[in-house]
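Dear colleague,

Thank you for sharing your sequence with our group. We've completed the structure prediction you requested, and as agreed, I am returning the results in plain text so they can be pasted directly into your records. Please verify that the sequence below matches your submission; if there's any discrepancy, let me know and we will rerun it promptly.
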Amino acid sequence: MGTITPLTLFVLQSNTFSGLFEGQNVITLQRTPSTNEYLKNELSKSTPLREGTVIMAVDQYAGRGQKGTTWQSEPGKNVTCSLLLMPSFLDPKHQFDLTAAISLAIAQWLESLLQLSVKIKWPNDMYVGDRKIGGILIENILKGKVWKSAVIGIGINVNQTEFPPEIQAHTTSVKQILHTDCDLTKLLTDLCQYIERVYTALKRGENNTLLTLYKQHLYRLGELHPFLVDGVRVEGILSGVTETGRLQVDFNGHTVDFDIKEIAFVI
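Please find the predicted structure tokens below.
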């Protein structure tokens, strides 16, 4: 089990809640290509959705990940959902603050569930050891200089134990770790509580604390690790992220920062 730092306890012990998800819409879809796409389509309609609305899919058959990747999920086995936030209190220049906060919430929730250290593979994939257990895809909707809404897509491997051969060696699930089936509805409720905690902390202006915690959870932090930069394999030490979310890597004492299209982990 990983050590929980005092800063982590600070966030988890916060008792200030906004009631964001309490009594809000939880819409369960039996089958949909993508909960993110469904939620964005609903947002385009004349009847506004309330902040905290959650779209849960039993079968999401065309989920998306970072860099245009697909999220493969066995029907009825995993948490595949999207939730609606309206972070108009944040400057659109600080979009990474929300990414860091949501990633941190999921990592802390998984740590509580699994009683294991969970790392965030930059920018927002969840890893236990060297195996991926989940990830998020945030799509922001801006109106001029105002951050109108954020659609938070979340995929967590829960009761699925078999995966496609090409990802099997680097993928895991809650059931593979705990050796028991879990109630997806209860897990979603618990996850929303963790998200509400960090979202409330963002509203209180605790961005720097959340970013510090995010950095502490980074996968491969402080380790010499191979990366692909412009298709060339190089080794460097992952040293952190900038306030805008660019990955910082130290190459023999020279730190360079990258966006998501400029660098890739060699797993």
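Summary note from our side: The radius of gyration is 18 Å.

Kind regards,
the structure core
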